[in-house]
Prior knowledge:
Blueprint: E1 2-12, E2 15-20, E3 25-30, E4 43-48, H1 52-73
Antiparallel strand pairs: 1-2, 1-4, 2-3
Amino acid sequence: SKMLKAVIDRFEDDKAILLIGEAEEKVVFPKKFLDVNLKEGDYVKIKICFDFEETAMARKEATQLMQNLIKNSGK
C-alpha cells in the first residue's frame, strides 16, 4: 500500500482541491468523503491499497453475468 500526503488547497462548492505529494499535483476530490472539521491548509494522508477481495468478487460476478448472457442468447 502507498501512503500519500496531501494538503487541502481550497474548497469549491461540494469539491475539495487537494495538492498531493511533493510535486503538489492538483486533484479534485468530493468534499463529502472528508471529515467536516477539515479546513483549507490542513494536511491529510491518503492510503491507496489493492482490495483483493472486492476485485475477486467483481470479477466473479462479471464472469457469471457473461456466462448467463451466453447461455440465454441461444434461446
